[in-house]
Amino acid sequence: MDILFYDGQCPLCRKEIETLKRLEQGNLGFVDIHHQPDDGPLAPGREALLRRLHLVTSEGQWFTGLEATVRAWSHTSMGWLFRPLSWPLIRPLSRHIYEGWADRRYERRYACGRCITEVNETVKTEQSGL
């Protein structure tokens, strides 16, 4: 089973995950990064997970960014729409667009100290059940 790690505090991310959950045809699990108690020994750090979409396969292979998106959508009947993003002639441009968008999203949501503090407080509150 593939597991997709996503930012559950990002409205656009949540919308995509809701759609993926509705359309996925099995073998795809979902983990909200903010509900993880800490980084596992083999997992990327929290900041890396927040910067880019991450997916890990049952064999332990990690996919990030655009590759994680294409792999996640391959678990749906719409996967064929995303497959061309990985084609050699298209991949450099699609990766550049994805990474530019992901960097801007991260900078807007998490790059300031106040934002990081708010996220950490939210996670602590959720974990303590308050």
Strand order of the largest sheet: 2-1-3-4
User: Strand-residue fraction?
Assistant: 5-15%
Mean pLDDT: 86
- Compute the number of helices: 6
Series of secondary-structure elements, N-terminal to C-terminal? EHEHEEHHHH
Radius of gyration: 15 Å
Topology, number of strands: 4
Describe the structure.
- With 130 residues, this protein is α+β, with helices and mostly antiparallel strands.
- The chain is built from six helices and four strands.
- It is globular, with a radius of gyration of 15 Å.
Q: Could you give the topology of this structure?
A:
Layout: E1 2-6, H1 11-23, E2 28-32, H2 46-51, E3 54-56, E4 62-64, H3 65-73, H4 79-82, H5 91-110, H6 113-128
Brief overview:
The protein has 130 residues and is an alpha+beta fold. The chain has helices spanning 11-23, 46-51, 65-73, 79-82, 91-110, 113-128, and strands spanning 2-6, 28-32, 54-56, 62-64.
Write a concise keyword list for the protein shown above.
single chain, 130 residues, alpha+beta
